[in-house]
Design a protein that fits this description.
Elements: E1 17-25, H1 31-39, E2 57-63, E3 66-72, H2 86-99, E4 103-109, H3 116-124, E5 130-136, H4 143-154, E6 162-164, H5 173-183, H6 201-217, E7 226-234, E8 240-248, H7 251-258, H8 263-280, E9 284-292
Parallel strand pairs: 1-3, 1-4, 4-5, 5-6, 8-9
Antiparallel strand pairs: 2-3, 7-8
Helix pairs in contact: 6-8
Length: 294
């Protein structure tokens, strides 16, 4: 999907740089928010609900001559066999993405009290990988505590770099982008200059609706519900008409999602439509249909 045009002057073709960087970390560490900040536009959804990143999403950031291809990964929720195998599938997706690149941004929610899961995950990473530690949400804690956390993680492995950032407000994110621009190898760019993600229009718009659904239903609807953009049409007045199906597992879930007199689904659709209109810079007509999936 294309984004805003990059206006930076490019040097000779032979000096272009391009490479993959995996973004790993525990659930809700802020990986998606970090990728969105690096890219400069939303490409990965942000939600308080765990495991919202269900598949790899490429965010493509450009800094000077460098094209940085960021691989978002599912959060690692547990380290034991899940009843429905869902956690295992998510972990496999994350590790498959991780194997494709030597460079890793390991994101930690520095505001958490318990870092056991993050440290366990860090120990799983091959020592041959080049890992940079990103302590996120630093605006919420004191600097002395940050230095203590960084020291504890450094006992596990040597990092290429340690960044202290707030992905939400952007503090420190520019330093990460400059670093990545220097370390990606000399290569031709893999994507056009105005591309910000490899997600299709259908997938991108579905992800926006899914984010707003999670904001409103929380625990009532499982994260496994699917949202599919069935069709879209560009109208003569410049607007776009988007029709989406929300697939749920039971009639009870459908009733919850619709809400009293359809109020909840209207609120979800209204919020998603406003954000899509802002992101696409055009009027959006969004139609949502809730379907019980057999």
């Amino acid at each position: 999907m294309s984004g805003k045009e990059n206006s930076g002057n490019l040097k000779a073709i032979g000096q272009k740089r391009c490479g993959f960087v995996a973004v790993l970390g525990e659930t809700n560490a802020g990986k998606s928010t970090l990728i969105n900040k690096l890219v400069g536009q939303k490409v990965s959804i942000v939600s308080r609900k765990v495991q919202t990143t269900l598949s790899r999403i490429l965010g493509i950031a450009i800094n000077g001559n460098s094209q940085i291809i960021l691989i978002d990964t599912p959060g690692f929720v547990s380290y034991h066999k899940s009843v429905d195998q869902k956690t295992d599938v998510l972990e496999k997706t994350a590790w498959d993405a991780f194997r494709e690149t030597e460079e890793v941004l390991f994101v930690v929610d520095a505001h958490k009290r318990d870092f056991e899961k993050s440290m366990t995950l860090l120990q799983k990473i091959d020592k041959k990988k080049k890992v940079s530690l990103v302590l996120n949400k630093v605006d919420l804690i004191k600097k002395e505590k940050l230095l203590e956390i960084a020291s504890e993680f450094s006992k596990i492995r040597n990092f290429e770099n340690i960044f202290m950032v707030s992905s939400l407000n952007g503090d420190g994110v520019e330093d990460i982008e400059k670093y990545l621009a220097k370390i990606v190898p000399e290569n031709e760019w893999m994507f056009p200059e105005d591309e910000i993600t490899d997600s299709s229009f259908e997938k991108f718009t579905s992800e926006i609706t899914r984010e707003h659904l999670y904001h409103r239903v929380h625990q009532e609807i499982p994260y496994r519900c699917r949202i599919v953009t069935e069709n879209y049409r560009n109208e003569a007045d410049g607007s776009v008409r988007i029709a989406q199906n929300i697939f749920v597992k039971s009639k009870a879930h459908k009733i919850i999602l619709l809400g009293h007199n359809g109020g909840k689904i209207r609120a979800i659709g209204s919020a998603a439509r406003r954000e899509l209109s802002e992101l696409l810079e055009r009027e959006v007509h969004l139609f949502l249909n809730v379907v019980v999936e057999k």
